[in-house]
TrEMBL record:
Monomer. The lineage of its organism: Bacteria, Pseudomonadati, Bacteroidota, Flavobacteriia, Flavobacteriales. InterPro entries: Aldose_1/G6P_1-epimerase, Gal_mutarotase_sf_dom, GH-type_carb-bd. SUPFAM superfamilies: Galactose mutarotase-like. This is Aldose 1-epimerase.
């Protein structure tokens, strides 16, 4: 467990997963073991969305890749590369064609292993400041590699009627629940505020969109995404790819209420 601290905040990171962000005694992150989801955050890469209806295949310029929901990155382990009192850097590296065991097999998937036809390095770094928590992502690899990126943090809810505010639009928890597993799309948006017992704003750079998901009332996932996967049929998921140019950098800042 990696712990980052300031005078008012404590961040806990378990093998690259953000499992705690406490500010002045208030915990903002969904706790593993609580109802709703067995994780606290994860990344969606190099695809976002399910692929069960496309036989777990995704089209790339190098042929079809075997993927499962939200890609293979989440099936890999992070290595801690650097740490200070207020920062930490985690890395995952992948070699083209390497088979990665799929934890969804056999209960939820027909594919025992996943693979991707490109080399890549994926860096996730945390920086805790007095104003908030910055989460940076840096993707490097083969020139022209297709990819999508989504960040999937879960926030703990305290009140009965929390509100999600995206610019001038208000979204209730009931609206998110009604959409179900598809996740509610919030298009062309770079900042969302979760108004609950305490308020926190999720600001982004590089993503451009959000989707919101939950199936319970005690947590909600507010997910920055580069592409909303349900905008296309699963067999056309490749239409949501962007192409890597040397490196691609993304940023999410969690800003708690002052």
């Amino acid at each position: 467990m990696v712990t980052l601290k300031t005078n008012t905040s404590v961040v806990k990171i378990d093998a690259g997963e953000l499992v705690g962000y406490e500010v002045n005694g208030h915990e903002f992150i969904h706790q593993k073991g609580s109802p709703g989801w067995d994780s606290a955050d994860t990344e969606m890469f190099p695809i976002i969305g399910p692929v069960n209806e496309s036989d777990f295949r995704v089209k790339t310029p190098k042929g079809e890749a075997i993927q499962d929901q939200h890609g293979l990155l989440r099936q890999m382990e992070y290595e801690l590369e650097h740490q200070t009192d207020t920062s930490a850097v985690f890395v995952k590296q992948y070699r083209s064609g390497t088979e990665v065991s799929n934890s969804k097999f056999p209960e939820k998937s027909t594919e025992a292993v996943l693979s991707w036809p490109y080399d890549f390095r994926f860096e996730k770094s945390f920086l805790l400041t007095d104003d908030g928590l910055e989460v940076h992502f840096k993707v490097s690899g083969e020139e022209g590699m297709p990819f999508m990126l989504g960040y999937h943090p879960a926030f703990k809810l305290y009140s009965k009627s929390p509100m999600i505010v995206a610019e001038d639009k208000e979204i209730t928890l009931d609206e998110v629940l009604e959409v179900g597993s598809r996740a509610l799309q919030v298009a062309d948006c770079t900042s969302i505020t979760l108004k609950d017992e305490k308020q926190i704003t999720i600001e982004t750079e590089g993503f451009g969109n959000f989707m919101c998901w939950t199936e319970v009332r005690n947590m909600v996932c507010i997910e920055p995404i580069s592409f909303y996967p349900y905008a296309v049929n699963q067999t056309q998921l490749h239409k949501g790819f962007q192409k890597l140019e040397e490196t691609a950098e993304f940023k999410v800042t969690l800003k708690p209420e002052a």
